[in-house]
Write a structure and sequence with these properties.
Layout (H helix, E strand, L loop, with lengths): L1 H28 L9 H13 L2 H18 L3 H21 L4 H17 L1 H4 L10
Helix pairs in contact: 1-3, 1-5, 3-4, 4-5
Length: about 130
C-alpha cells in the first residue's frame, strides 16, 4: 500500500502527460480518427473550427503540457494551464456524452497530480501578496 501511495502520483502524471501529448500530436497528424459530432456538439465544434486558429493552438498547447508533465519540468504550471482545458473537455462531453469516461479519467488524474503538487500552489492562494 505504501508503494502505491508513493508511485500513484508519478504514474498519474506520466499517464496524463502521455494522454495530452498523444492527443495534441493527433491534432496535427490525425492518426486517431475522430468521429464527427452531431447536434449541439457538432455546432460547437464547427464554430471552433471556423475560427481557423483554435484547434492548432489547442493541439500545440496540449503537446507542451504533455511534455512538461512527462519530463516533470514546470509540472505545476502545466496543471494550471491544463485546468481550463479540462473544464472545457468535461463541458463538451455533456453535449457528446460518449467520451465522458475519458474526460472523467483526465479529471481524476489531474486531481491526483495537483494534490501531490499542492505545496506549489500555496502562494497562489494567498489573499494578499507582499510587495
Amino acid at each position: 500500500m505504501n508503494k502505491l501511495i508513493t508511485f500513484a502520483p508519478v504514474g498519474a502524471r506520466l499517464l496524463l502527460g502521455l494522454i495530452f501529448t498523444v492527443f495534441g500530436l493527433n491534432g496535427f497528424l490525425h492518426f486517431i480518427p475522430i468521429p464527427p459530432a452531431d447536434g449541439a456538439a457538432g455546432d460547437f465544434m464547427g464554430g471552433l473550427a471556423a475560427s481557423g486558429y483554435f484547434f492548432p493552438l489547442l493541439a500545440g498547447t496540449q503537446i507542451i503540457i504533455g511534455l512538461a508533465l512527462l519530463t516533470n519540468l514546470f509540472a505545476a504550471l502545466a496543471l494550471v494551464v491544463l485546468a481550463p482545458i479540462t473544464i472545457h473537455i468535461v463541458a463538451y462531453h455533456t453535449l457528446a456524452p460518449d467520451g465522458m469516461g475519458m474526460a472523467l479519467l483526465v479529471v481524476a488524474l489531474q486531481v491526483i497530480v495537483a494534490w501531490n503538487l499542492r505545496a506549489a500552489y500555496r502562494p497562489l492562494l494567498n489573499a494578499k501578496v507582499q510587495a
